[in-house]
Amino acid sequence: MDAQERALLAMDVAWVQWRSEFRQKLFKDGVLGRPMRSVFEADMIFSIVAHHALKGRPITLKELATYFGMIATEATVSRHIDDMEQGGLVERRLDEGDRRRMFLMPTRRLEGLGHEFQQARLRIMRENGFVWNGGNSAG
After folding, report:
1. Cα separation, 103 vs 95, whole angstroms
2. Most CB atoms closer than 10 Å: which of 1, 49, 54, 75?
3. DSSP of 32-96, one letter per residue?
């Protein structure tokens, strides 16, 4: 493994450690009702719901479940959403254009946690040598 690959691996391990501690904190603070659901599935859900909302195209539960392929069923994703809704992190909103659909929307609480999340990721990346070059691929 070269130095860059070791740095990426160290960054991954640091991120997993931070996520574990963060998840424990959320459970202890009562944000999440269940400590044992998959952190990785939850991270994916948080990111996908937030990304779609920021793009101005909220996502439905059915659409969200397609991201998980064979690793999680729609029922498993639904249980995550139930936990997140109970913790005030997402809300279900009726699609005014098609009242048969419900969109998953991030709440202000999730926005705050998402900011904390992104700041931690950036810190960990920088500690492992990441440097933003302004989007130039020649950097």
Report:
1. 6
2. 49
3. -S-S-S-HHHHHHHHHHHHHHHHTT--EEHHHHHHTTTTTS-HHHHHHHHHHHHHTTSEEEEE-T
Assess contact for 92 and 102: CB atoms under 8 A.
Answer: yes
Distance CA 109, CA 71 (A): 27
Model confidence at 35, in pLDDT bands (50, 70, 90)? low
The SS3 assignment for 105 reads strand
Q: What is the pLDDT of residue 39?
A: 76
Dig out the tokens for 47 from the structure. Answer: 């990111």
CA gap 89, 32 in Å, rounded: 9
Q: Residue 10 corresponds to which tokens in the numbers above?
A: 């160290």
Most confident of 69-73, 89-93, 111-115: 89-93
What is the pLDDT, as a whole number, of residue 137?
58
1 Cβ partners below 8 Å, 6+ apart? 9
Q: What are the residues whose beta carbons fall under 8 Å from the beta carbon of 129, sequence distance 6 or more?
A: 4, 7
